UniProtKB/TrEMBL annotation:
Residue span, RNA polymerase sigma factor 70 region 4 type domain: 126-176
Example GO biological process: DNA-templated transcription initiation
Family from the record: Belongs to the sigma-70 factor family. ECF subfamily.
SUPFAM superfamilies membership: Sigma2 domain of RNA polymerase sigma factors (SSF88946), Sigma3 and sigma4 domains of RNA polymerase sigma factors (SSF88659)
Pfam family, one: Sigma70_r2
Name of the protein described by the UniProt record: RNA polymerase sigma-70 factor, ECF subfamily
Residues of the RNA polymerase sigma-70 region domain: 33-92
Keywords: Sigma factor, Transcription, Transcription regulation
């Protein structure tokens, strides 16, 4: 397991714009945040949605992270707050029937290693692997790579914040790449 110094170095690289660094942070801390939320929510879909939102928010606000604290602790705090907000929002929606829309901003990035791997695969073989993913991951892969929508268009289509779409797509690509390589999820 990497040390706190390695994590801090990865965070610095992410702040400098390295997509690989963001991907490494997601890989390293995903299971911890997801496991924490799975215990809290006792619902796989909610745990996954909250985890996606956690990384989305954390990556958006990475410059506010204080290295005096453990990165995982910071992520868990964000995750707790998102869960509390979700409960409040659901309660309010039940009471008022309201639905909020999120503001969307876009910055599409150059293809990552996962993008290249995905586009190089045989289509029939690729579709077989895509069908193994959870439906919401299948959906973002379909919208991005087959319908060729931008992140902003996907966010609009799914009625989700753009950062959620980016994290969900990143996670979907990771799972898809692992499945293609024959690794366990």
């Amino acid at each position: 397991m990497a040390s706190a110094d390695d994590t801090q170095a990865t965070i610095k690289k992410a702040l400098a714009g390295s997509q690989i660094a963001y991907s490494n942070l997601l890989d390293k801390f995903w299971n911890g945040v997801y496991g924490f939320q799975l215990k809290r929510t006792e619902n796989e879909n909610d745990a996954e949605d909250i985890t996606i939102q956690t990384f989305s928010k954390a990556f958006d606000k990475l410059d506010t992270y204080d290295p005096k604290y453990e990165f995982k602790t910071w992520l868990i705090a964000i995750s707790k707050n998102i869960h509390v907000d979700l409960i409040r929002k659901r309660k309010k929606s039940l009471e008022t029937g309201e639905n909020q829309e999120s503001v969307k901003k876009v910055l599409d990035n150059a293809p990552s290693a996962e993008d290249v791997l995905i586009t190089e695969q045989n289509l029939a073989n690729l579709l077989m692997h895509i069908k193994k993913l959870k439906p919401h991951y299948q959906e973002v892969i379909n919208l991005r790579y087959f319908k060729e929508l931008s992140y902003a268009d996907i966010a609009e289509e799914l009625n989700e914040p753009i950062n959620n779409v980016k994290v969900k797509l990143l996670r979907a690509k990771k799972l898809l790449a692992q499945d293609i390589r024959g690794k366990k999820r």
